[in-house]
Amino acid sequence: MKARFGKLFVVLALVFASVSLTACSAVQHSGKLEPIVIQEQGSFTAGGTVITSPGTFDPVKMTPEGQTFHGDHVYAFYQIPEKARKLPLVFWHGYGQFSKTWETTPDGREGFQNIFLRRDYPVYLLDQPRRGNAGRSTVARTIEPVPDEQRWFNIFRVGIWPEFYPEVQFPQDQSSLEQYFRQMTPDTGPIDIDVNSDAVAALFDKIGPGVLVTHSHSGGMGWATVMKNPEIKAVVSYEPGSNFVFPEGEVPPEKNSSGGSLKPVEVPLDEFMKLTKIPIVIYYGDFIPAEPTDIPGQDMWRIRLEMARLWADAVNRHGGDATVVHLPEVGILGNTHFPFSDLNNLEIADLMSEWLAQKGLD
Amino acid sequence: MKARFGKLFVVLALVFASVSLTACSAVQHSGKLEPIVIQEQGSFTAGGTVITSPGTFDPVKMTPEGQTFHGDHVYAFYQIPEKARKLPLVFWHGYGQFSKTWETTPDGREGFQNIFLRRDYPVYLLDQPRRGNAGRSTVARTIEPVPDEQRWFNIFRVGIWPEFYPEVQFPQDQSSLEQYFRQMTPDTGPIDIDVNSDAVAALFDKIGPGVLVTHSHSGGMGWATVMKNPEIKAVVSYEPGSNFVFPEGEVPPEKNSSGGSLKPVEVPLDEFMKLTKIPIVIYYGDFIPAEPTDIPGQDMWRIRLEMARLWADAVNRHGGDATVVHLPEVGILGNTHFPFSDLNNLEIADLMSEWLAQKGLD
């Protein structure tokens, strides 16, 4: 009898080990990671517009007459894992960035692309119109190499250059910093909230229902896109930085900081109400001061966190479901403006996974 | 006895079926494709340079003084399949294009990225400096939306706008053409052969030995990169379009066409000799005239095919192993300037697979 229980125990232990292995597949081992099984992957563009030159095309001269120019689309690379969950995650980068935001971290660890593929979510990474691989812009632009990386180091709250914040969740070696700086890419045309939200709305027309994950500048463009397409079933927004929309008559005053002002945007109530129909969660990292400071790279985030709270209040006042999580307040310390690629990004991913599960989006 | 042979036959048939299934995993079934098992995937930048503004960074003013600008790197997204072959394939796009060249085809089929992952090759897709996701350029540039797509339709030998070539291996629906046009992206700085070949050479320093696969404009930059890094163990070049290098004293005359001239480039013999140490194969598609024509989109390829043959002769004269395959001459008809994404791209991939096998590169 004892022997038989012994065997049963071994079998159960094996079953349990195999279950935990599956559940923990996102954990990064010191050795080789488990392979990712991809049922389908590829890329496409969505949305955009066409310029047509008047006249007839001449195949000898090939001057612009009668020719077209397709631009202002969004580009997306997608991967659908085997045994995929139902709702895909659509990841939208922030200002000056592109899909790299969600790919390999500056120090070579897995970003949210791989982490959420391992958690069985279909993953779409997009480049917004006039950025990265979606570079065909219908509006001209001059791009100049203006040295600006120490500014971004501060604004992205890695530290106050050349010092890293103490206990910051960012690798401090030279090679990581170099990869971080090189993950920026310029705008090939003016940033246009309408152009961008139209294109991402067109993406959701193509792929159907999904969860939009935004970062920084795409936060506000994300709200604009939700108001254009009901296929967006939820939003996870990391450190939204602009375009906080409020219904007519409820717009709070502009906020000021040493890093510039932040003006909320008025929209008709019936548009705003679309934001109350889906669950929304917003995360902000560490090193955001509670009181005004003359360091603009910090102070600009103080007013954004304040505005995000007012915004969530407005959404909830109208029956919505918006939550603002300031990570240090839930005991998660040291995060920069890029929590999803910080050293603790698996913990940050766990938080997002739990929220998706709570909202029945998994 | 008969029954036992019967059973044996069933078993053998099953083994055979399973073997053929593996061998044909790149074949696109009308239904669902087999999943792709990825051991590792991610992205990084390589090479590039840094501009530094004199002075000291001021965290309050955040003006350019004392700030840096990292640019002119190459960006790569890579995938390593489970049970990978030894040598990765590094795919380099052509003029006006980016990694999309090798991803999903305009009509939604699998491109060389997926096809060669299915054939167990590690695959790297790069964006050259100042293009796509590698947009940080150390030299300024103005980008303007000049309608030019009918010109490219002709130069890429899809047809003579608005007519498609008869029997062309290109989908003729509107949506495919739109995706094709939208897979272009502009340069964010001037094209610089040295900058680009330096960056791709730096990529090979990072990843070690591999096979370089080039297209069109990257063909000539590929020869330049081979001369900079012996980690490139072979080159597959689709329709190389410029920078044909010849040793001192052996440079053929410039060639002229209604689509402009093509001037070969002189290099020292000891540099040229590096191109004789590795196997090289060059493919050109269909619709290239044998005699001069006043249609520049055709005629410019006539002189390139002629020059490629002179170039291969020069390489082989010095003991090298270069082959030029003009696809119609081996019975493969209808290919455009993009054979690897044409309707018959699996046949084109088979040709490349066979060549890699012949040269012991698989």
Automatic annotation (TrEMBL), chains A, B:
CDD domains for the chain: Esterase_713_like-3 (cd12810)
Superkingdom classification of source: Bacteria
Signal peptide stretch: 1-25
UniProt entry tagged with the keyword Signal: yes
Gene3D superfamilies: alpha/beta hydrolase
SUPFAM superfamilies: alpha/beta-Hydrolases (SSF53474)
Keywords from the UniProt entry: Signal
Repeat listed as a keyword: no
Protein name (record): Alpha/beta hydrolase family protein
PANTHER family linked to this entry: HYDROLASE ALPHA/BETA FOLD FAMILY (PTHR43194), PEROXISOMAL MEMBRANE PROTEIN LPX1 (PTHR43194:SF2)
